[in-house]
Amino acid sequence: MSDRRTRLIAALDTRDPREASRWADAVTPHASAIKLGLEFVYAAGLEAVSEIAAGRALFLDLKLHDIPNTVGAAIGSLSRINPAMLTIHASGGAAMVAAASHALNENFSTENRPVLLAVTVLTSLDDAALAATGVEGGVRSQVLRLADLALRNGADGLVCSAHELAALRAEFGDSPVLVTPGIRPQGAAAGDQKRVMTPGEARDAGADWIVVGRPVTGAADPGAAAAAIARELAE
Ligand SMILES: O=c1ccn([C@@H]2O[C@H](COP(=O)(O)O)[C@@H](O)[C@H]2O)c(=O)[nH]1
Which reactions appear under catalytic activity for this entry (predicted)? Predict the structure, then answer.
């Protein structure tokens, strides 16, 4: 029996810093981290990220995917932001993951080094959508293949759907940090997410963190929505 505690990351997907700040205040007692990503960074910039993340654990979800030199240099440009977690795409390849890991070691102190998370297969993809990109064999085997590549090359953890958690824990054990988006409380609309589970199911399958966006930010009371998810995780 693991003593893992599954925690909530609230995805604050908006272009508006005031809205992000309001949401951050509402969810902060219940979410252990906030996630800011491409939508916010492109609209509001990295300075706004710093302001909203001040005093909070930040999951900076940039999903970097480029040649190793460019990814390493981009990470060098992030040292002033000080995120707790940072994402790259595992499909960028072994050398790109290694360059990202090296850049984190070079640009952050040991205490402040962000956890490097490699995105395996986006939770918006199912077997058919993945096959249409030329990857045969199904989502699960691609997640395991990319997980192996990423963990061997310096990633500290993975972004995957909750459906792959049991297979990843069986293959790689307890130490990789496993982060699962595609989480929907019972009855919530899946939207564009294809591989979904409830917060409690993801907890039972072995998630360290769950990421929840629209079911929280689209609720009439985002604070209450986050509190309900935190309660479900604590059951
Ligand atoms: O495979 C992935 C990787 C990242 N995400 C991000 O998580 C949130 C999910 O938001 P919801 O509104 O709860 O669907 C979003 O910011 C994505 O960019 C993901 O969904 N899947």
Answer: orotidine 5'-phosphate + H(+) = UMP + CO2
| CATH number (domain holding residue 95) | 3.20.20.70
> Which of 156, 114, 164, 158 has its CA nearest to residue 138?
164
Q: Is residue 1 part of a domain?
A: no
Domain encompassing residue 120: 7-234
Q: Pick out the residues of the known binding site for substrate.
A: 13, 35, 61-70, 123, 184, 193, 213-214
User: CA-CA distance, 166 to 148, in Å (whole number)?
Assistant: 15
User: Could you give the CA distance from residue 132 to residue 204 in angstroms, rounded to a whole number?
Assistant: 31
| Residue 2 within a domain | no
* CA-nearest residue, atom 5 of ligand 1: 181
User: What confidence tens digit (pLDDT) does each residue in 59-104 have?
Assistant: 999 999 999 999 999 999 998 899 999 999 999 999 999 999 999 9
Residue having the nearest C-alpha atom to atom 13 of ligand 1: 213
Q: ipTM value of the model? A: 0.99
What one-character DSSP code corresponds to residue 114?
P
Question: Does any ligand 1 atom lie closer than 6 A to the CB of residue 193?
Answer: yes
Question: Is 123 inside any structural domain?
Answer: yes
Number of domain units in the chain: 1
Q: Which atom of ligand 1 is nearest to the CA of 183?
A: 13
Choose, from 17, 56, 57, 63, the residue flagged as catalytic.
63
User: Does residue 84 line the site of ligand 1, with CB under 6 A?
Assistant: no
To which H or E segment does residue 88 belong? strand 85-89
Residue 131 DSSP code: H
At 183, list the tokens. Answer: 């989480």
Within a domain: residue 68? yes
